[in-house]
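Hey all, quick one. A colleague (J.T.) asked me to put the MTE job into the tracker so the inputs and the structure tokens live in one place instead of scattered across chat threads. No bug as far as I know, just bookkeeping. Sequence used:
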Amino acid sequence: MKTMSRRKLITTGLAATAGASALAAAAKLAARYGLVPPDHGGLYGVGETLTYASQRLITRHTMAREFGRGQISKMPFANGKRPRDERYLQLEAAGFTGWQLAVDGLVANPGSFSIADLRRYPPRTQITHLACEEGWSYIAEWTGVPLAHVLNVVGVLPNARYVVYFSVQKNWWESVDMADALHPQTLLTYSMNDGDLPPAFGGPIRLRVPRQLGYKSVKYLTRLTVTDNLSNFGKGLGSASPEEGYSWYAGI
Ligand SMILES: Nc1nc2c(c(=O)[nH]1)N[C@H]1C(S)=C(S)[C@@H](COP(=O)(O)O)O[C@H]1N2
Ligand SMILES: [Mo]
């Protein structure tokens, strides 16, 4: 076996240290600019910070790709189970007329919106890709009101940093930072491929966040809350995903 020369040993060691200190320096820089994700602790923490901070610095204003009508998937895959509780089934039977989306937290005018209320706002339609972290994906057309519009209606306070959103399915909740919350393609969607959003796909209302992986697009939304601090939600990692080992920030 060839032994490593002393010189090589030192250069390799230096390179390793240089790499580590560059990472540490980058993490410090991210902290200075407030670009540390809520799941920054633990084994992959520095990596999570670098991914989030660099995406935010470089691609903050970029748009997710939009497709043509001919590219819409013929058989979109509905993942997961539909809610089966009595209340949801009653609301569904009544055409979701009784559904309410509550918006509260750091806002001037907390409120509650029916689907009809949301439909009265200027809609946006977009054909985007939904990619699951498990490897499958599909393209569909979604129509809804930009979350930014609803946030303007309720009046977000200047110290707002994140929007946390909850599903009727208690184990599904997520959050995004204000850059994604106010992004023009982040939509509260109530239509899919020319019809009402089907229950299998999150009807009556789902947040589509096309610049992040599918799990950020939570279905069956019941409540949004604006906050400056994620530590009081769940285990304090920003959403349910990091509690299961997935990144809070899932930018694509
Ligand atoms: N409420 C709720 N939202 C959810 C899920 C779910 O099971 N329940 N699954 C998530 C995951 S992991 C993905 S990939 C997408 C799947 O979206 P689809 O059902 O339109 O395929 O929804 C996300 N939002
Ligand atoms: Mo997923």
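Adding what we noticed when we looked at it: The chain has a mean pLDDT of 90. The domain at 69-243 is CATH 3.90.420.10 (Sulfite Oxidase; Chain A, domain 2).
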